User: Fold this.
Amino acid sequence: MDDHNTTPWSRRLFLQQGATLASLVATTPLFIEQTARGMMLPLGSLVTSQAGVPEDRVFVVVQLGGGNDGLNSVVPYGSSEYYNLRPGLALQAPGRGEDAALELDGVQGIGLHPSLRGLKELMDEGSAGIVQGVGYPNPNRSHFSSMDIWHSADTNGKSDGWLGRYFDNTCDGTPNPEAGIAIGRQAPLAMQGRTQMPVSFERSELFRWMGTDLDQNLESPYETIAKTPHAGMVAEEESQAAFLKRTTLDARISSDRVRKAVGVSPLVTYPNSNLANQLRMVAAMIRAELQTRVYYVTLSGFDTHANQATQHARLLEQVGDSLLAFQRDIQAQGNQGRVLTMVFSEFGRRVAQNGSSGTDHGTAAPTYFIGDMVHPGVHGTHPSMSKLDQGDLVHTIDFRTLYASVLEDWMGADSSGILKGNWKTVPLIKT
Amino acid sequence: MGTTSMKKVKDRDFNYWKAQHLLNRAGFGGTPGNILALRNMGPEDAVDYLIDYRDVETEAVLPDNFDSNIMKPRSGNERQRFNQARQQGNETALEEFRKQRQERQRIDRRQMANIQTWWLERMIETPRPFQEKMTLFWHGHFAAAYRPIEDSYHLFLQNQLFRSNAVGNFKDDLVHGIIRDPAMIKYLNNNQNNKNSPNENLARELMELFTLGEGRGYGEQDIKQGARTLTGYTYRDDEFQYLSNNHDDGLKSIFGKSGRWDGHDFVEMIFTRPSASQFICEKLYRYFVNDSPNGFTREQQSVIRKMAAKLKSSKWELKPVLRQLFLSEHFYDEDNVGAVIKSPVQLVIQAIRSLRTPTRNLPKLNEACALMGQSIFHPPSVKGWEGGRKWINTSTLFIRQNILLYLLTGRDEGSRAWDRGGSTEYDATHLVQHLEDIEGSSTVQDGIVYLLRFAHPVAAPDGKRIDEWVEYVNNRGGRFDNTTLINILALITAAPEYQLS
Assistant:
């Protein structure tokens, strides 16, 4: 791993930065502490581990939990089977009334759900790409198992997370406490590595010790609990107590930094929704130049077994509008060249509708990429609508191909170790 | 340099703090009253009381504590109707089957959550803390996770296997038991291991993770051949089943010998390897004595070798090894006090058992353990939890601090304004009632020092911290009323040292 020593989260650099911060926090008033934060090396100035790939790139994952219906998100209106198998749910071809699919420029037979107006706007301006028919062999139709497979990039689903392994492979032992940030109660498996664990919080105001809510006067004695003569310098064989004190200090610094970043008003107006709120926090943290390379947000509720139409439309509207606001915010910040967003779900849904005007668990589905560096348009081959496997679509591209492309062409990492195999990349990112 | 002596700790050295150390490690800590009782027994009786718990009455665990039928396989009749529907492409009937299955899975997940909280409650309430502490050890050692198993009752049975044999025979009860355990067979795919298409998963983990340690005295060939001995080892309903038709009864060559071996023989052969006694003692050492985050020192290795020798000479009986360990001078050496980072479960259970906070809400505690990285019955992999420093990161630290606030006050993130008066049903005053017995004094300063020492396993509390906290108490009237005490405990439990045991 010696050749990775110059990455921003190498032990040496991290320790230098961490030590400066830690020792200052322990002894100096707040205003100097804030200056210390300002002194941290700007991300862009750091050397990269792979030629041609800047180190300041950020990857944002949006997880749609429950199994988003791919066929009613990216609509194959050119297929007669689509209308035969979904008499009550199929969306009309563009131009056929208000609820018809939205047309995509230069694309025949494939349109977007009418509620995905935000995504269409991004497609039209060339800052979004859709990959069709994404899946894996022997698809698992259990939410949990299939989600584990996507998170671990391992069809046994018994491994650690693919992004966690990315961090493990690029840091040399000392994890950067903020390399990955997940919004939500529990850290997603995808972000969990052997040494690296992400920061996770549901609401930034809860990412702190809450004891001062009991009595404000506890603030000052709490301040001193992590103070120690050894804080800052990390000995090779530091004691358990010194390790805990250092991490307590890291947590305090992270907490301050995250809450300060998130407290700043965004540059654009976001819709009032769960996903928009999460993405607003992510954009704020990107703007504050946290040393975070991966952010993870989640929206659930896509398990539309019954009366799908209304529920699905509402969810997709939330997705499209939130993604649009997020991208506009990133553009207003001038960060559009360094942020890539991926939207995925653990599986798509069965081609035929069920007896309750809904759809059951299925297999392959589209994955979405947003960012100025994305090759725009609709990519790959739509799965056959006539040659189904037990009523389900057969995937045309393996999701690990997309992971490999993100790792190699966006993060500048060697994907074979992280994905435990050689996956060919596809031209997803402009290089 | 600490002592590596396995000689018995002297009676006169077994003071209040050593008794507390024993109770923290061989259990989940205790109140000042518990500690005093243990100290008064003297070391040998105290250790025997904890680890030889047969005479301590406890609530029995019964097979019908939970429903064994939720995930029962389809009956022959049902299977026939299902196959028929599939052949006929009867979507309506198939959908009905799928719905039924999803409903059963939903109910089973609920039962799994109930089993989690049932076990947490048992750890909180048990008069045999060591039995539950060992059960937790075995759960992390023979780790199996609910998701791929999808049968909560099988995990309940496995949990009971660990509990009944918590300090039994490592080889005969636990390892021979685990290769016949339905949950483990399913988890490691041994139900798919048959003579025509062997599955190596169980054979591999049996050596790598359960007995010998990775690459320690076996090779890929031994895994392949070992897998053949385990063919036909499967389960039916809730019981182990040996399918002789699926078993490969040909000659196998393992560790340079050959024979027509089955799984029983395979285990017996594994236990002839040198690291069979060494590897498990390393794990016991990490669990009970010292995390050794930088690897074992030479001194620690020598202690582990003594443990391993004892395990072998006692024919794999665990109790003699643990008895020797908990009575040894080495165990009480100051290098080993505060040398273990509490697991999330230990953190929560020990807080309740030692501070005697109310249990509050078990599902909430269960969720907190999951957020801190230890969801029982959901270990991250067959490797179990790595433990030690892996428990600690910036996110889990705040959760660790805040779950203690919740136990102390009953207030959680959901409740808006925390009651400044600290109104709570928790009575913390019992913690300082014993003060006079121990220190013979009751000034604020002594109280702070005692509480710090009680909750932090470090020899000398920090002077500046004491001054500041004494000042805090003095500003509130200079006495330990319940609210002040709870606020002080909020600080004590937020301190880095509180994560140590």
About this structure: Confidence is low (pLDDT under 50) at residues 1-51, 229-236 of chain A. The first helix of chain A runs from residue 11 to 27.
